[in-house]
């Protein structure tokens, strides 16, 4: 399973645009991407909690670190954006 990450492709898209040569994603494709992000996010949380247990960090400290985790914030932002786009597309149908 590949992890969602930025690639070194020459065609760059901003969050608000899609390259002209790339068709709009189907609802099934968006759902698949959302599921992959959810799995990736959960893996980060699980690994962080496991490491925190080994280091005997308190649950409070661990949760605080997770709230500040930059990759989790990035994932949450992308997921939120995708969900808004799906909602907007459904509203326009």
TrEMBL record:
<protein>
    <submittedName>
        <fullName>Uncharacterized protein</fullName>
    </submittedName>
</protein>
<feature type="region of interest" description="Disordered">
    <location>
        <begin position="1"/>
        <end position="26"/>
    </location>
</feature>
